[in-house]
């Protein structure tokens, strides 16, 4: 999808620099992640499908728990992620973050067109990822969005998003849980699939 900002080559450098500044990642780590991303990108369009993503991790088991990691990153549910989202996800899983940074990261991940704001649709995607039980009906989402959108311009800045989430502990806790689930599953995936990665190199 075009609004995913497909990012091979030069675009990836720009996006990686922004993520590096945001998380304080080391350049060597970013290079390693890009090499893995590029290797997994089967058609070199700057986007990874779920199959690409799992293959890049050395995963041949297609059971649901492996695909959940991808689903957590696929902000708009179109079945693809670009390098920006991939890199944010890797940093999100492997970096110690305080509550405000977690919220900033959630905003950044789900800002699918990277315009610095969350639309109603993007905000809805966040709530459904954080709590996929159906509690956030369209009416509930609309009510929350209206309260969070303090300047009433129909979109949420990162400051509006952080302020609302911080003032609503239940919602902030759901984002923290979402982050912990992602981190645990990502680390379990890497540990469980180390032999598969080594076998692939032989």
TrEMBL record:
<keyword id="KW-0106">Calcium</keyword>
<dbReference type="InterPro" id="IPR011992">
    <property type="entry name" value="EF-hand-dom_pair"/>
</dbReference>
<feature type="domain" description="EF-hand">
    <location>
        <begin position="65"/>
        <end position="96"/>
    </location>
</feature>
<feature type="domain" description="EF-hand">
    <location>
        <begin position="136"/>
        <end position="171"/>
    </location>
</feature>
<dbReference type="GO" id="GO:0005509">
    <property type="term" value="F:calcium ion binding"/>
</dbReference>
<keyword id="KW-0677">Repeat</keyword>
<feature type="domain" description="EF-hand">
    <location>
        <begin position="28"/>
        <end position="63"/>
    </location>
</feature>
<dbReference type="InterPro" id="IPR018247">
    <property type="entry name" value="EF_Hand_1_Ca_BS"/>
</dbReference>
<dbReference type="Pfam" id="PF13499">
    <property type="entry name" value="EF-hand_7"/>
</dbReference>
<dbReference type="InterPro" id="IPR051581">
    <property type="entry name" value="Ca-bind"/>
</dbReference>
<keyword id="KW-0479">Metal-binding</keyword>
<feature type="domain" description="EF-hand">
    <location>
        <begin position="98"/>
        <end position="133"/>
    </location>
</feature>
<protein>
    <recommendedName>
        <fullName>EF-hand domain-containing protein</fullName>
    </recommendedName>
</protein>
<dbReference type="InterPro" id="IPR002048">
    <property type="entry name" value="EF_hand_dom"/>
</dbReference>
<dbReference type="Pfam" id="PF13202">
    <property type="entry name" value="EF-hand_5"/>
</dbReference>
């Amino acid at each position: 999808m075009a609004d995913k900002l497909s990012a091979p080559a030069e675009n990836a450098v720009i996006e990686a620099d922004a993520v590096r500044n945001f998380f304080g990642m080391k350049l060597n780590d970013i290079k390693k992640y890009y090499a893995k991303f590029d290797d997994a990108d089967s058609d070199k369009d700057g986007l990874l499908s779920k199959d690409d993503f799992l293959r890049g991790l050395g995963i041949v088991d297609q059971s649901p728990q492996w695909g959940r990691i991808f689903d957590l990153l696929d902000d708009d549910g179109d079945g693809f992620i670009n390098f920006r989202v991939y890199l944010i996800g890797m940093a999100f899983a492997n970096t110690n973050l305080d509550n405000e940074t977690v919220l900033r990261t959630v905003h950044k991940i789900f800002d699918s067109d990277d315009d610095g704001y969350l639309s109603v649709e993007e905000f809805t995607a966040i709530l459904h990822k954080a709590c996929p039980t159906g509690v956030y009906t369209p009416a509930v989402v609309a009510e929350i969005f209206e309260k969070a959108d303090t300047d009433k311009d129909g979109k949420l800045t990162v400051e509006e998003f952080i302020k609302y989430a911080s003032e609503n502990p239940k919602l902030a806790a759901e984002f923290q849980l979402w982050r912990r689930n992602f981190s645990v599953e990502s680390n379990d995936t890497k540990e469980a699939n180390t032999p598969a990665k080594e076998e692939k190199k032989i």
